[in-house]
Amino acid sequence: MDKRVLVTGAVGMIGQYLVRKCIERGYFVRATDIREDEIYENVCDEHKKQFEFVQADLRNFSECKEVVKDIDIVFQVAGVKGSTQRASQEPNDYFTPMLQMNTNMAEAARLQGVDWYVYTSTVGVYQPAEVFKEDDVWKTYPSENDKYAGWVKRLGELQLDCFETHYGLKNYSIVRPANIYGEYDEFGEESTVIASLVKKGYHNDLLSVWGDGTPIRDFIHAEDVARGILMSYENKITEPINLGSGDGVRIKDIASIVATHYGKEIEYDTTKPNGDNKRLMDMTRANSYGFYPEVDLETGIKRVIKYYESLQK
């Protein structure tokens, strides 16, 4: 339990859960984010000796080398959030910084000689299919609806494969989460679909839903993603694994849960894109390692609602 771990993107949805779970395990945690550390200012006294926050911009290689010093395990969770529409219309706001962060962190970790590196990829690496299976990724291209984000995450995976071929390194895990949601979303222009619907349900007379509500998605709570990331390290999993529920749900069903809670009517804005018709994870591999989500969707949505309402007080 004397491991020193680095959690990047520590202020984000996954990062906050991951930091806490690492502390609970007794690890020393260095948390880093480009944003300031208000959420960690009041780390309880009993944990202060095993925690530090370092503000860093991972687009800068020198800062990546600094934050990875004396670290045994790197959890690369940092990313750039964006709606599908904006990411397709203004792709360089996402592609270039993601490329810089992923490349810099992996290379810094390699030079430091870390024991293990966990890279957080995305469902966006997959081409549309009935079910997403891990080994199918490199037989296809990412969806046109998620082309830039899909490719930049694939390049992060490919870099680790490059290290294995060039240096014989096989000390890394790759996790591919499904659609992530949770309490610590930003609830802004770039929030996830669930956070966006909760915010609209709270403030608006009508619950406006992008598209016609028919697309099917696989949702996973950020806390379960954090659990899956830790599992991939603790089991030294060296093959990519999906992190999802394996159960598809229509966007209109999500909207219905939120609308019922707030007593609002639903309005479908068909001028907005639907995205891919279906995104569903094959969970066979993750299940074989003992991973099953613990937060069911309805409970998770209610948790997000409760969290958002607490922010309005």
What does the model show?
- The protein is α/β, with parallel strands linked by helices and 313 residues long.
- Helix content is 39%, strand content 17%.
- The chain contains ten helices and 13 strands.
- It has a seven-stranded parallel sheet, with helices on both faces.
- Helix 1 (13-24) packs across helix 7 and helix 4 (92-112) runs parallel beside helix 5 (147-167).
- The longest helix has 21 residues, at 92-112.
- The protein starts with a strand and ends with a helix.
Set out the fold topology.
Layout: E1 4-8, H1 13-24, E2 28-33, E3 51-55, H2 61-67, E4 73-76, H3 84-89, H4 92-112, E5 116-120, H5 147-167, E6 172-177, E7 179-181, H6 193-203, E8 206-210, E9 216-217, E10 219-221, H7 222-234, E11 241-243, E12 249-250, H8 251-262, E13 265-269, H9 284-288, H10 297-311
Parallel strand pairs: 1-2, 1-4, 2-3, 4-5, 5-6, 6-11, 7-10, 8-13
Antiparallel strand pairs: 9-12
Helix pairs in contact: 1-7, 4-5, 6-8, 6-10
Give the amount of beta strand, in percent. 15-25%
Q: Kindly report the average pLDDT value.
A: 92
- How many runs of DSSP E, i.e. beta strands? 13
Tally of separate helices? 10
Helix-strand string = EHEEHEHHEHEEHEEEHEEHEHH
Concise structural overview:
By secondary structure, the protein is of the alpha/beta class. Helix content is 39%, strand content 17%. The chain has helices at residues 13-24, 61-67, 84-89, 92-112, 147-167, 193-203, 222-234, 251-262, 284-288, 297-311, and strands at 4-8, 28-33, 51-55, 73-76, 116-120, 172-177, 179-181, 206-210, 216-217, 219-221, 241-243, 249-250, 265-269.
